[in-house]
Design brief:
- The complex is a heterodimer of chains A (525) and B (181).
- By secondary structure, chain A is mostly helical.
- Helices cover 67% and strands 1% of the residues of chain A.
- Chain A is globular and about 65 Å long.
- Chain B has 181 residues and is α+β, with helices and mostly antiparallel strands.
- Classes of the chains: A mainly alpha (525), B alpha+beta (181).
Chain lengths: 525, 181
């Protein structure tokens, strides 16, 4: 074989170095997804410790100091290690396939953005074995908990966050440049699949707020080591300033974690309803409005710091305004299903559960947005119930739905539908059993982040813990399904879903190592 | 727009990243400016520099000023106002003292941070002399009277008749490496 032919037809490199040196968007997508699955189980193990301790009132298993480290690390790992990399993985696989590009625009940068992550998380996890223990100040690392009262490992936490931030920023730059410059000829912006649109907007959010996170952790680092007083009142600083800068990052961050899931759902629902998406333009506009509004609502996380009335009202109303574009999206998904010829394969089940349960999370969010009522809910389990409803049956179900949906195209094999249905129903029961009772104990005043609780909360907490154990172990079934599919799944058809539309389904099954080396012809519909 | 500045190019996007990193830090002074302009946060101004008409002292509008003294981290110091509450006419000068006693067995440098409640009143409480303007060195076991001279601006909004001035005393010996000169 001539050297020329080899460059044209080469497949993946052999051996382990394939995964270290790869610049292929499909390989890197797989790396991201596998990495986030590993992180899901590490973060899940920490949730397991938390729920085991809270199974009964009193202190049974772990000391409060360790409990605090578990809640902190659980949050950090699930957000930065599980949910965000999973979406970047989906983007890596799907964005080039859906816009007809041969690869991401900056493939070497892509490799670099992924390979920062294992180092960042090794560093973060190593703090568990350090004297003084891991970070224990909650994932929100409020000053002065993360400055004056922080364990020595806070320095490692800061650098780990810096590295995760660099990884996210570079990944986002790659997505934006790819979408703007590498669309198939003739594909206009308003022809983009909705998953691509939501990711484009998410990437801009990442570009805008990850640097602010980098700035705030840098300020923490300087307060700890260089004698500055950004957040110390003694030196003229202000701890409330920390909360403002942090939430300026962290509120858009919650949309970063859910907008790509909106995109996945907007791909899946039309496929299984066998109808085109209702209100495409409205969906794009709603996504953009949510992204814009996310920048001006941050202080609804801090209603109780002693804001003036004008501030409370401003942030209350802008927060409630977000319900409008979100409502548009939910309405459009339901309208897409209306009078469709629906079938309920596993991706569709997860997508429908996403709509129902995310809406519950959205409604509890509206309750929390009511400033006067928030004084009762603040820092209770009601908040925990709210954000787990939008993150677990929201983002995580969105990711799982996407994996089931595109898995036949990725691997060329069909997953076991029966096991998929089991996975869905056990997850659905588990997630509701875990998080629904939290609403009740929260409204009754059970504070979050405390390893013990008053006796009257005992029954609901036991239910929550049982649900958590069910949900956690069910995800082992997910791993089993994935392994079984790759090893011995039945060959998938070229178009595994009858109603599926889009460029990603036009490539052979499984998707070859290189796709769209010549741009596809768009057939005008 | 120049090609490399476009938000669809890597360099243009990196520029956004750098600007947003700067913006994160710019939020620190912006926060102070915002609080000053809107009068939020209850921060008082520095030493009074103006020339308020003393005639205003004849006003019969009486304001109650309460004093609160806090110690940060519950430091083992004694810190208290000599008078917990003063009634005075708007425009009238008033001198009062705060007592402090360093019960540490070492010299410390203390810094008092003021805060006024309700915050809308902060701009109308003018201090001519305040111990909070300087860092206060205290020898081991030393007791001191900290003076405070202030008056209330007659322009204080009509609906405010009572305000609270709170001081929190911080130990800044470690921060102030020069050791209280």
């Amino acid at each position: 074989m001539s050297a020329h032919a080899e460059t044209l037809h080469h497949g993946p490199a052999k051996g382990f170095s394939r995964w270290i040196l790869t610049t292929n968007h499909k390989d890197i997508g797989t790396l991201y997804l596998v990495f986030s699955l590993i992180m899901l189980f590490i973060g899940g193990t920490m949730a397991f410790v938390i729920r085991a301790e809270l199974f009964q009132p009193g202190l049974q298993l772990v000391m409060p100091e360790f409990f605090n480290q578990m809640t902190t690390m659980h949050g950090l790992i699930m957000i930065f290690g599980a949910v965000m990399p999973a979406f970047v993985g989906l983007a890596n696989w799907q964005v080039p396939l859906m816009i007809g590009a041969p690869d991401m625009a900056l493939p070497r940068l892509n490799n670099f953005s992924f390979w920062i992550l294992p180092f960042a998380f090794t560093m973060l996890l190593s703090t568990l074995f350090m004297p003084g223990g891991a970070p224990n100040f909650g994932w929100t690392f409020y000053a002065p908990l993360s400055t004056t009262y922080a364990p020595p490992s806070v320095t490692f936490f800061v650098f780990a966050v810096h590295m995760m931030g660099i990884s996210s920023i570079l990944g986002a730059i790659n997505v934006i440049v790819t979408i703007f410059n590498m669309r198939a000829p003739g594909m206009k912006m308003m022809d983009l699949p909705l998953f691509v649109w939501t990711w484009l907007i998410t990437a801009f959010l990442l570009i805008a707020v990850m640097p602010v996170l980098a700035a705030v952790v840098t300020m923490v680092l300087m307060d700890v080591h260089f004698g500055t007083s950004f957040f110390s009142a003694a030196g003229g600083g202000d701890p409330v300033l920390f909360q403002h800068v942090f939430w300026f990052f962290a509120h858009p961050e919650v949309y970063i974690m859910v907008l790509p899931a909106f995109g996945v759902i907007s791909e899946i629902i039309p496929t299984f309803a066998r109808k085109p998406l209702f209100g495409y333009r409205a969906m794009v506009l709603a996504t953009a409005s949510i992204a814009f509004l996310s920048f001006i609502v941050w202080a609804h996380h801090m209603f109780t710091v002693g804001m003036p009335l004008a501030g409370e009202l401003f942030f209350m109303y802008t927060t409630m305004l977000i319900a409008v574009p979100t409502g548009v999206k939910v309405f459009n998904w339901i309208s897409t299903m209306f009078k469709g010829s629906m079938t309920f394969e596993t991706p569709m089940l997860f997508a429908i559960a996403f709509i129902v349960l995310f809406t519950i999370g959205g409604l509890s969010g509206l309750m929390l947005a009511i400033a006067p009522a928030d004084f009762q809910y603040h820092d209770t389990y009601f908040v925990v119930a709210h954000f787990h409803y939008v993150l677990v049956p929201g983002s995580v179900f969105g990711i799982i739905a996407g994996v089931y949906y595109w898995l036949p195209k990725w691997t060329g094999k069909m997953y076991d539908e029966k096991l998929g249905q089991w996975h869905f129903w056990l997850s659905f029961i588990g997630v509701n059993l875990t998080f629904f009772p939290m609403h009740f104990v929260g409204l009754a005043g059970m504070p979050r982040r405390i390893p013990d609780y008053a006796l009257q909360f005992a029954d609901f907490n036991m239910l929550t813990s049982l649900g958590a154990f069910l949900f956690g172990t069910t995800q082992l079934l997910f791993v089993y399904i994935l392994v079984k599919t790759v090893r011995s799944g039945k060959p998938a058809e070229q178009l595994p879903w009858e109603g599926a539309r889009g460029l990603e389904w036009s490539v052979p099954t499984p998707a070859p190592y290189h796709t769209f080396t010549t741009p596809p012809e768009l057939d005008k519909e | 727009m120049k090609h490399w500045l476009k938000p669809s190019s890597p360099s243009g996007l990196m520029l956004i990243v750098v600007l947003m990193f700067g913006f994160g830090f710019a939020l620190v002074p912006l926060y102070d400016v915002f609080c000053e302009v809107t009068g939020l946060n209850g921060k008082t101004n520095g030493a009074y520099q103006g020339d308020m008409n003393v005639q205003a002292a004849n006003s019969d509008r009486i304001i109650t000023v309460q004093f609160v003294a806090n110690r940060n981290d519950n430091l083992p110091w004694e810190f208290s106002p000599q008078q917990e509450e003063i009634k005075l006419a708007v425009g009238a000068h008033k001198k009062t003292y705060f007592s402090v006693n360093n019960s540490y067995d070492r010299a410390v440098v203390a810094q008092a941070i003021p805060s006024v409640s309700p915050p809308q009143a902060a701009d109308y409480l003018n201090k001519i002399e305040c111990f909070c303007f300087q860092q206060q060195p205290l020898e081991a076991g030393e007791a001191k009277q900290f003076p405070l001279v202030f008056f209330i601006d007659p322009a204080l909004p009509e609906d405010i008749s009572k305000l609270t001035l709170s001081y929190t005393l911080f130990d800044i010996s470690e921060r102030d490496a020069s050791g209280g000169d």
